[in-house]
Amino acid sequence: MNSEKRVKPAAGISLDLDNQWSYMKIHGDEGWDTYPSYFKIFIPHILDVLDKLDLKITFFVVAKDTESEENRKYLKMITERGHEIGNHSYHHESWLQTYSYEKIEDEIRLAEEAIEKATGQRTTGFRGPGFSWSVDLLKVLESRGYFYDASTLPTYLGPLARMYYFWKSDLSKEDKKARKELFGKFSEGLRTLKPYYWRLGEGKRLMELPVTTMPLFKFPFHLSYLIYLSNISRPLMNLYLHTAILLCKLTRTPVSFLLHPLDLIGGDQLKELAFFPGMDVSSEAKVKVFIHVIETLKSHYRLLPMDLYRQEMERKPLKSKVPVK
Ligand SMILES: [Zn+2]
Predict the structure, then answer these.
(1) Three-class SS of residue 303?
(2) From ligand 1's centre to the CA of 130, what distance in Å?
(3) How much distance in Å is there from the Cα of 90 to the middle of ligand 1?
(4) Distance in angstroms (rounded) separating the CA atoms of residues 195 and 108
(5) Which end of the chain is least crowded, N or C, by CB within 10 Å?
(6) pTM of the entire structure?
(7) C-alpha distances in Å from residue 268, one per residue of 51, 221, 283, 284
(8) Distance, CA 3 to ligand 1 centroid (Å)?
């Protein structure tokens, strides 16, 4: 044993800033195409919670939201309070993998320009809507100087999540067909949880930072899932979280922890989404779970926004892989 003080390992933390309209769109609800926004309520709310925790994270922003002046005011607040911004596409369409190279390039470039204009930050990391990705997408990101992609979610449960979502939605047959790869195939579960480089040919590469799921079992342990468990039983959620952390440590799996807006806010504040699963839990109860989870993670990890996490991962001997869809 050496007497040196051990530094806690780094973990990345990010939030996919899906707005009210994208929840409505994915659910097949009318009126999403007028782009209703809950930023006015949600952004000041989460920024205050993060300040209390002295926590800086990455917000993956959908560029469509930069089109309204009202939204831009709230997006600007995020960078003013010291958080990092990532690119979460322009239109938040969960079937990016069906796009041509040129269409992906437009989507990424237009999003990047709009987000930089609105927030003052140039994005250097990307997360695909609905965890969609393709080889062309990785190539576009590399060519535009991105440092990482964070679009993979290694889980076997993707097809199950899709079935559940189709069952709960009012989508037509055509809509379902367009969304047939939503949340990924079963084979996504075989992907590794540890960060690695995609090998893109001609010596080019791009770092992949997968969303962490539970090692071995590949069950999700992002906050939405923990809140769902805490609703059943708080001790169960705690056991699950501690098991996930223990397995990450035993398998030396770095952690990238994922948040969504509805994890921190309930139907009491967002009345329009009150009928969504999990929205019957109050904002206060959700924030309590959030603070508890963050404090637990903090006792094991240094929680960092994604680009600082990426820099830490760069110092490790990472594997590289040829991308196969
Ligand atoms: Zn999203």
Answers:
(1) strand
(2) 6
(3) 11
(4) 22
(5) N
(6) 0.90
(7) 22, 25, 7, 9
(8) 44
Contact 208, 226 (CB under 8 A): no
Residues 323/138, Cβ–Cβ less than 8 Å = yes
Specify whether the CB–CB gap between 63 and 316 falls below 8 A. Answer: no
Is the CA virtual torsion 139, 75, 284, 301 positive or negative? positive
Q: What whole-number distance in Å separates Cα of residue 230 and Cα of residue 227?
A: 5
Q: How far apart are the first and last CA of the chain?
A: 44
Measured CA distances, 264 to 103, 178, 279 (Å) = 34, 30, 10
Q: What is the pLDDT of residues 255-303, one digit of tens each?
A: 999 999 999 999 999 988 888 888 889 999 999 999 999 999 999 999 9
* Nearest-angstrom CA–CA distance, 30 and 38: 17
User: Rounded to an integer, what is the distance from CA 95 to the centroid of its chain?
Assistant: 16
Residue identified by tokens 């600082």 is 308
Q: What pLDDT shows up at residue 324? A: 76
| Residue segments in the chain with a per-residue pLDDT below the cut of 70 | 1-5, 156-172, 174-190, 325
d(CA 30, CA 97): 25
Q: Please tell me whether residue 115 adopts helix, strand or coil conformation.
A: helix
Q: Are 320 and 199 in contact (CB under 8 A)?
A: yes
Strand pairing partners for 86? 60
Q: How far is the CA of 22 from the centre of ligand 1 (A)?
A: 8
